[in-house]
Amino acid sequence: MTGRISRRDALAGIGLAVGSAGCAGRARNIAGREGSSQLVLEIRTTPADEDPNGIRIARALAENLDAVGVDTRVETMNGTDLHRTVLLNHDFDVYVGQYTEVLPFDPDVLYGLIHSKFTAEAGWQNPFGFTDLDVDELLEQQRAAAESDRARIVSDLQESVCEKQPFTVVAFPDALAAARTDRFVGWETGPPISATGLLTMDLVDERDEDDGEPVTLRLATTDGRITENWNPIAAEYRRYGTFMSMLYDRLAIVDDGTTIPWLAREWEWIDPETIEIGLRDSTWHDGEPLTAEDVAFTYEFLRDTSMGGTEMPVPAPQFRGRGSIVESTDVVDDSTVRLIVGGADEAVAERALQVPILPRHVWIDRAETATVGGFEFDTETTEALVTSNEDPVGSGPMRFIESTPGERVVFERNPDHFLVRSGSDGSEDAEADGDTAESTAGTEDGESIPAPYRGKPAFERLEVAIVGSDVSAVQWVADGYADGTVSNLGPDSVPRIGRESDARLVSTQSAAFYYVGYNARRAPLSNPRFRGIVASLVDKSTIVDDAFAGYARPATSPLATSPEWVPGNLRWDDDREEDPVHPFRGEDGSLDAEATREALREIGYRFDESDRLLARDQ
Amino acid sequence: MTPLLPVVTSVLFWVAAMCLVAGVAVVGPRRLYGVGENLVPYLRESRREVAALIVVLVVSGIGRPALQSISEVFGLRLTGLIFALEGNFVAWLQGTFQSPRLTLYFSSVYVFGYAFLLVFPFIAYAALPESTTLKRLIVAYTLNYAIGLVLYTVVLAYGPRNLMPDAVTSLLYTFNPNFQTLTGEVNVETNVFPSLHTSLSVTVATFAALTHGRYPRWTPIAWWIAGSVVVSTMYLGIHWLTDVMFGTALALGCVYLSYRYVDAVGDRDGDVADQNAADRNVADRNAADHNVDDGAVEDPTEGGSA
């Protein structure tokens, strides 16, 4: 009798047959113990049509986990579904995803991602359920530290995070796009998947476009969510938030690594805890004026979308980390507002300025508890979280026109936007004043807007078409149905661009790293040592070659696109071939399964006679 | 502007051309003339079946987004299970036999051959002297779509090309990416279980076998195309072997049910001169035989237009 199950079955039979108190007690003592069986893990990710890279990472990891003795299944689901189950419901073991920010970001990103105070919340705030006292401490310290100390704290923080692996950074992909340059140029200057990238593009020759039709930039993507939902805080529908950033202005944006005033005309530190912000003259797309009240409302709303209407706050599932920097707000007058940031570092506070400002008159009605057919399902959900936000009212450079779900969405230039205005009154300044990016103070609109943005966007209409896959997207560009692609391209589509004479491959750096996320609420993923061994099954170099066709850089730290923050021992330089913290357990892409099992045995895991990793029955 | 129009145009052109050739070769010019006379009365005779087919197609066309949402929230996610069941069969199939010629062949069969296979039986069976077979075909199509729609809602699964792009290339769409614009119009990527391409093709092939006496030439053609479509769904990386096997079972079940539903004996004496009476007889008999209570009230005024 070697089989575990047959022994238990036999015991159950004996227990019934004997029936005497002493024997039954012994049988209970044995059979009543929970048995073990093979560990089953499910890896969730999006299908290849939607994102060609993530599924390849998931498959490679699943294969290695299987070899070690974990029964691993890959389950594909679309982006909405993935975000809903992972970010909102925390119903997952392992998932492969992509971070949401395309441009290099401040280390304070980690605060929202892994601070233990967010574990109970739904959204991008700590979806991993990661809890670690030391990490919490470092996250708090880096927020408040003086600039000189911050580098050291951030470096300690990364070392701690890389060791404990709440998630495993796999690689930073290049933002690849197929683009036509016969009508628009500037695809390379900012990634076309970022709002700033799209805004700074230039029209090749306006005379060519003089046929009565509006100048239209046509993009192709595999992500249909933008045709169904325009809610900037709905985590399940947003990827990078590119088009949301064009609909909704932020107080400040990042341009080439520098935070520049945007909806804020200027800001000033009036004491170490308070920033005073002067707003530009701006109106909402519905004609209402944008005031300081809207800004104050937005920060309160991100903290609690019920606006105090429910027993417990219902925080927004997006921008939570950033929103939490602002402790309170103080409206001075219609165009001036003060943000109290509690001694946060300047760079951290500037990050707080990068949230979409929402119109109070639209969103205040959405603070109520969400209902379906008049019934409340759950007091933890407000209307704001579930509304699709049809006919979005923003203040940004583009406004929503129309949409056909799953097919296309159309935006139109907002003629009242300060970028458009700056083009008409500040065009001479643009020539004379080359490095306006440096200046953050200015009285006139034109002065504080860097030259590449003045008078932009260069298109009157923006049409986003939804296509079936990356290969289709490339073909649309090659055949002239679209000017550029804005979703990820995989190894099947990249070579295709080379074969098409009218399409060019555009490659820019992206900070939106791919990662493997673990649900630390579930054993054995709750064990940082176990996660460390899973991390060592991710063969980052091979994945970069196979899944990204080389168009990515393997990485260890989530801050790798901001190398100034990354300590030398965590950098993945050209001469480094393996992960410095959790190197791959094998060579040349092939795993050493026996050595991995040995490492797992050392940290207390057991295997059965057929090398299956045992876990308590779940 | 999208690539949809050129793709649809080319499909229509090729299907029409193939139907014309097959019509002459299989049905014969003389009987082909009968199609024009028979089609309208036959369809009127089968109006309830035609209506049911239209209802199912409209529901699947319009209701798909809603059913898709239901599927996402409540459906069974079976991609991982299907893969665990059958493993790398599709990858093996593609890896072993892949060649540019076969890709061209199977892509064409999957798009053009399949459309032809579905349309041509309408023409062929409308040329027959009685409407029984056409009616059965319509019933079988309806059942295929209806059951398929239910299974698509219950089961949420992605095909091999979406789960294992490293091992299975999406050959149809790398061969011609614009085909994806077409298939995207009629299907969702999560609708792989069961394979309706398989079930409808096998349905047509089964009918071709059962009507071998009428159209001896059609049987080998239908079998060849249906077989190719079935293989193409896997060769192109779109469906799992599991989908194909369930699709085949679904097809045989639907053909069986369509024979049960449309009684062969009842239509043999169907007199073309008195369509309405024959129709009523059949309807009555069906209701009696199979306890089909459709509650349809025959419109007496409709006889006048016949």
From TrEMBL, chain A:
Transmembrane segments: none annotated. Coiled coil: none annotated. It holds the Pfam family SBP_bac_5. The keyword Nucleotide-binding does not apply. Residues 426-436 have a biased composition (Acidic residues). It comes from the Archaea. The keyword Aminoacyl-tRNA synthetase does not apply. Residues 260-605 form the Solute-binding protein family domain. Keywords: Signal. InterPro entries: SBP_5, SBP_5_dom. Residues 420-454, 573-592 are annotated as: Disordered. This is ABC transporter substrate-binding protein. It comes from Halorubrum glutamatedens.
UniProtKB/TrEMBL annotation, chain B:
The chain crosses the membrane at residues 12-29, 50-67, 73-92, 104-126, 138-158, 221-238. Residues 281-293 have a biased composition (Basic and acidic residues). Keywords: Membrane, Transmembrane, Transmembrane helix. Residues 275-306 are annotated as: Disordered. The keyword Lipid metabolism does not apply. GO terms for cellular component: membrane. Pfam families: PAP2_3. Residues 295-306 have a biased composition (Acidic residues). SMART domains: acidPPc (SM00014). This is Phosphatase PAP2 family protein.
